[in-house]
């Protein structure tokens, strides 16, 4: 599967990767569990983690003893939260994905109806909560005897869209750098 063979909804960058993914059908009379506040928190935590990793990698962090002590406590808390999230993720299988700002595609053996709203949980990082997006199936593509479902996301709001776009850009940039090596 390549980005040239599956067309995602909307314009913009698309990234191929493998991530833990859990999906479910939203019952007709239910409201979506995907809140903008939850997704905004997940993406802000992810961005903060990325920024911290960059600072450590570039050696630009100057710690006093007090800051180092506080950072150690925060690391312990993050590890504890990470363990709790990891327990949740054990149920989510890693799947190859094609992700864009307005939709995604992945192979699935279970049939997904185009009539229902789908709730998708993407586990973008081991130390952050999952990103919860809703959408509908807009296409199916058969590649290498697998059925790939193409989902168009419902609008998650401007703030979530902006942070999600930054994350997709970072992943796209990393995949290009990795392919050049």
Mean pLDDT, all residues = 82
Record the strand order, biggest sheet.
Answer: 1-2-3-6-5-4
- Specify the overall morphology: globular
Q: Given this structure, which CATH class is correct? A: Mainly Beta
- How many helices in DSSP terms? 3
Task: State the separation between the terminal residues, measured CA to CA.
Answer: 21 Å
Reported CATH architecture: Beta Barrel
CATH topology: Thrombin, subunit H
Rg result: 18 Å
Structural class category: alpha+beta
Sequence stretches where pLDDT stays below 50 over 5 or more residues: none
DSSP strand content: 25-35%
Whole-number tally of structural domains: 1
Quick one: CATH superfamily? predicted glycosyltransferase like domains
What does this structure look like?
- With 181 residues, the protein is an alpha+beta fold.
- It contains 3 helices and 6 strands; from the N terminus they run βααβββββα.
- It has a 6-stranded antiparallel barrel with strand order 1-2-3-6-5-4.
- Strand 5 and strand 6 (146-153) form a beta hairpin.
- Helix 1 (36-58) packs parallel to helix 3 (158-180).
- The two termini are 21 Å apart.
Quick synopsis:
With 181 residues, the protein is of the alpha+beta class.
Defining traits:
single chain; 181 residues; alpha+beta; Thrombin, subunit H; six-stranded antiparallel beta barrel; 39% helix
Record the SSE blueprint.
Blueprint: E1 14-26, H1 36-58, H2 65-89, E2 93-100, E3 103-107, E4 117-122, E5 131-143, E6 146-153, H3 158-180
Antiparallel strand pairs: 1-2, 1-4, 2-3, 3-6, 4-5, 5-6
Helix pairs in contact: 1-3
